[in-house]
Description:
Elements: H1 6-21, H2 26-40, E1 55-60, E2 71-79, E3 82-85, E4 91-92, E5 95-96, E6 102-106, E7 119-128, E8 142-146, E9 172-177, E10 192-198, H3 201-207, E11 215-219, E12 236-239, E13 242-247, E14 260-264, H4 269-275, E15 294-295, E16 298-299, H5 300-304, E17 307-312, E18 323-331, E19 334-337, E20 355-359, E21 372-381, E22 394-398, E23 424-429, E24 444-450, H6 453-460, E25 468-472, E26 489-492, E27 495-502, E28 513-517, H7 522-553
Antiparallel strand pairs: 1-2, 1-6, 2-3, 3-8, 4-5, 6-7, 7-8, 9-10, 9-12, 10-11, 11-14, 12-13, 13-14, 15-16, 17-18, 17-20, 18-19, 19-22, 20-21, 21-22, 23-24, 23-26, 24-25, 25-28, 26-27, 27-28
Helix pairs in contact: 1-2
Amino acid sequence: MLFSSKLNLFVYMLIIVLINLSQVSTEENLTALSSEMHKHSPVYRPHTHTLVKYVVSIRTRNFDIVFGDNHYCAGSIIAPNKVVTAAVCVNKGNNLINVEDIVVVAGSPVLFDQTSATKIINVSNIIVHPKYKYPKFEYNIAIVVLLESLIMDGIYIDTIHMVHKSPTPGTECTVVGWGRVFYRGPFAYEALYVDLYVWLPEICTRRVRRFKVGLLCAGDKNDYEKDTCSADAGGPLICNNRLAGVALFDLSCGVPNYPGVFTDVSLFRDWIETNSGTTDNCAKILPILRSGGSFRGMTREAMAKFVVSIRSQRAKAYFGDNHYCVGTLIARNYVVTAAHCVMDMNRIITRPNRLMLVAGNPNRLSEEKSTVKLLVDKVIPHEQFVHTKGFNIALLKLKTDFPKDNDDIGFISIAEHSLIAGTNCTMIGWSRIAPKSAVAAQLVYKNLQILDKSVCKNIYGDEFYDDMLCAQDYSNWSIYPCHGDAGAPLICNGALCGIYTWKDSCGKFNYPTVFTEVFDYRSWIHSISKAHKHIILKRNLVLIVLVYGIRLLYL
């Protein structure tokens, strides 16, 4: 990463010398240095590192003199055990380097400091695009598979999501890395940021001799020294908080009218997902627990008692083929589900006489002795619900209570507090086993871990609201909900904490599942159920008065 002038470099080096001579604390030193660099150079460090958590340092196995002097490339974390980098970073010419010769370092914004957040991980495999040929720019992309998974804390280490399409020309993006501060100069002491603008492909072709389809170029026409340099290779070009490009290294740094060159990630997204062991289907998501086992400390039978299948009134061909959503029993005459299960895009509420609830049978297609079918008296979606705008919760009031003597039916309590990140939970439903396949016959159980809401907001942007949760299984990124799960419960520590509302799509790589946080609606649920109890009480009083009145007339 280049400085805009030799004077700025001199200022940078002078400040480091002064810092080392001073008695000021390390934290204050770094803050002062970051502030000073922001004044004097277009290359900067923000006060809070919001992007470097996505970036790793790729190093030779052993350092020469000090920790970090073996850094030579960067990469981007796309999964707990997967890093995307440039093919040139893991090849010597056209020969793949030995996995035992490199390590990946995460959690260290300061290149030469090893802290409690620093993670040094060995490499188990390297996957280079099969069409890559040195020294060409085309297909310059690779995946580094880590020997063990990183733990995502959302502060020092986190995964970055890939763009779906190429950034439009003129988009402001950011490069983050520890590249040399000038050609053949020293590495950046701490991760540096530089803002660049995506250029038109035709301009890139004129300025970069080897520019081909599959590449991006970015720079600043008003300041050509804002550029990448050696040791920035493999690092991310981040546009709108998503991975858009992988930095490549040419022989020049900061040359007038010569932009930085990047592999266009959007064009290799399918290849990355396929070779990362994930695809856009739900075929791998079904860890179905056998009868009698335990799951998150609760037996299968215990968890199944809370779940009901929401169906249309009549099956088309066979029992259970009319299932379309999931609900959770919270009282003998109330089921909670997602509002979008009972209200369409035009805000038309499903009529109660079109619904049937089935409980007491984990096998959706089998009508057993324990199976109970009940009709719905009232459909009560949240009054503020609008599709994709939050408030995605609804209550279904039953015409009659679920029987008390059925051991296969139970009721779950509502969470009494908001969830914290890292909480382990279980989601239950009848998923489709692939996007267009049949809905599962047996209940499907999924282990998920609650993510910090800032992480969810970072991924989904304005589509993620304050009343939502998101969760993912970091140990198995192929665990996803699918169609047939809508309205399904998220159970944490034996309480109902979430209602499955939506996901970007079934089995989509690296996108967590979104739930309505039930705790936020405790008061609403209690007020609705209490109001209906008062209505029932009033009806009963009227009936009593009428009966006694009629009897008095005939006395």
